[in-house]
């Protein structure tokens, strides 16, 4: 197994005044074949009908791939299944498929969506493509040998029509999007952040009133980067040393959450805790510093905010992403878990915190476990590899 990781992310905005998005992104992984597949479908028009059509398209493709069927069979089934609008003579749903195998090869299948952009070392790179007809529909296929930091950007046509009739005469064409993506490229930037920046610019060009559903999805090939998060002391105090040994033996960055937990970790390292009174966000307790630990924060309140950020991240609608630039404890954790990490190891102590037994506080024993469980599931939805160990 190589030391590379497939990072995926997407952001969508709805057409102005529409409650449902006519675009749909599905991402599946098949660990036994080390495959990651991203499908972006764009239903004709907008609203409920477009939402149903794009969902149907993406679900069919993903279901067939999850069953191990060849990608050609998936494309043929969709091409035969999709109806054609009698008035406009175009398919009711278009799609783009990006399939990464063993982090070594990318297969790209494209039908009527704007063609995928490949950034290699931050520069737009042409890639070979063949065209064939399936059931009268032109399908473009590509197979590309991957390199570290390759970025693939897929989009619905709402992106290339951004600004029509407002800030631009002919929309934000593919070459303009390429120029924009090259301008902000940073090899440390996640796939989700790349998507967010492009969609945010689309929204700006639309004047905050998108004329079409707009979705951008990105796939980035990056090195694996582990992060370890420790929260709560063990239920048995005799297990403190075992817990600390396992936590500090792990490779990667380290986050410690909670006052008691950070005291135990600092004592284990033989280092003092340097507290701060910097309330960057008035609702989030300030961070502390301990030599040998990358980030030290308060516990449940801070993690609760991280969970809120994770919900929005997974929904694909948080293109503003306030956490990405703020410096409070919750935002710093989110940056490490969402942007930096590929593999995340949770070390969770199950001791009851006496401070949480105050009936006037909306905190109970189970909330910490529930928060970690929800956060772990959200991170898995982001494509992270997660392990959770309780003490």
Task: Explain what you see.
A six-stranded antiparallel sheet has the order 2-3-4-5-9-8. A five-stranded antiparallel sheet has the order 1-11-10-6-7. Strands 16-13-12-17-18 form a five-stranded parallel sheet, sandwiched between helices. 32% of the residues lie in helices and 28% in strands. 46% of the residues are buried. The mean pLDDT is 88. The radius of gyration is 23 Å and the shape is elongated. It is α+β, with helices and mostly antiparallel strands. Strand 8 (130-134) and strand 9 form a beta hairpin. It folds into two domains: 4-223, Phosphatase 2c, domain 1; 226-390, no CATH class.
Key features of this structure:
single chain; 391 residues; alpha+beta; 2 domains; six-stranded antiparallel beta sheet; five-stranded antiparallel beta sheet; 10 helices
Count of helical stretches: 10
What's the structural domain tally? 2
CATH superfamily of the largest domain: PPM-type phosphatase domain
Helix content class: 25-40%
End-to-end Cα distance, whole Å, is: 30 Å
SS content category: alpha+beta
Low-confidence stretches: none
C-alpha geometry: elongated
- Taken as a percent bin, the fraction of beta residues is 25-35%
Record the strand order, biggest sheet: 2-3-4-5-9-8
Q: Give the CATH topology of the largest domain.
A: Phosphatase 2c, domain 1
- Number of strand segments: 18
CATH class of the largest domain: Alpha Beta
| Radius of gyration from the alpha-carbon trace, in angstroms | 23 Å
Please name the CATH architecture of the largest domain: 4-Layer Sandwich
Largest sheet: 6 strands, antiparallel
Order of helices and strands: EEEHHEEEEEEEHHHEEHEHEEEHHEHE
Q: What value does the average pLDDT take?
A: 88
């Amino acid at each position: 197994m190589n030391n590379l990781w497939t990072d995926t992310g997407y952001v969508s905005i709805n057409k102005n005044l529409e409650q449902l998005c006519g675009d749909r992104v599905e991402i599946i992984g098949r660990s036994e074949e080390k495959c990651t597949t991203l499908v972006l479908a764009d239903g004709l028009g907008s609203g409920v009908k477009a939402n149903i059509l794009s969902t149907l398209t993406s679900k069919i493709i993903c279901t067939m791939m999850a069953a191990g069927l060849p990608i050609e069979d998936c494309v043929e089934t969709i091409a035969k299944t999709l109806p054609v609008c009698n008035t406009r003579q175009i398919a009711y749903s278009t799609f783009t498929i990006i399939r990464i195998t063993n982090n070594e090869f990318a297969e790209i299948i494209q039908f009527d969506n704007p063609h995928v952009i490949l950034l290699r070392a931050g520069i737009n790179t042409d890639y070979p493509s063949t065209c064939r007809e399936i059931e009268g529909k032109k399908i473009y296929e590509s197979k590309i040998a991957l390199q570290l930091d390759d970025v693939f950007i897929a989009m619905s046509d709402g992106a290339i029509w951004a600004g029509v009739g407002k800030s631009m005469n002919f929309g934000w064409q593919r070459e303009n999007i390429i120029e924009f993506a090259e301008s902000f490229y940073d090899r440390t930037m996640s796939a989700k952040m790349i998507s967010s920046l492009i969609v945010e610019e689309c929204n700006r060009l639309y004047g905050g009133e998108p004329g079409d559903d707009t979705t951008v999805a990105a796939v980035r090939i990056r090195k694996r980067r582990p992060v370890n998060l420790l929260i709560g002391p063990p239920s048995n105090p005799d297990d403190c040393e075992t817990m600390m040994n396992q936590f500090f033996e792990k490779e990667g960055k380290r986050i410690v959450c909670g006052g008691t937990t950070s005291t135990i970790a600092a004592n284990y390292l033989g280092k003092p805790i340097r507290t701060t009174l910097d309330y960057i966000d008035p609702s989030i307790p300030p961070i502390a510093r301990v030599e040998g630990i990358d980030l030290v924060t308060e516990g449940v309140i801070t993690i609760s905010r991280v969970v809120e950020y994770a919900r929005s991240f997974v929904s694909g609608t948080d293109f503003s992403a306030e956490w990405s630039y703020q410096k409070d404890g919750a935002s710093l954790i989110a940056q490490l878990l969402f942007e930096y990490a590929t593999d995340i190891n949770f070390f969770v102590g199950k001791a009851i915190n006496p401070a949480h037994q105050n009936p006037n506080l909306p905190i109970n024993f189970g909330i910490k476990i529930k928060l970690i469980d929800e956060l772990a599931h959200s991170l898995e939805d982001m494509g992270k590899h997660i392990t959770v160990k309780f003490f």
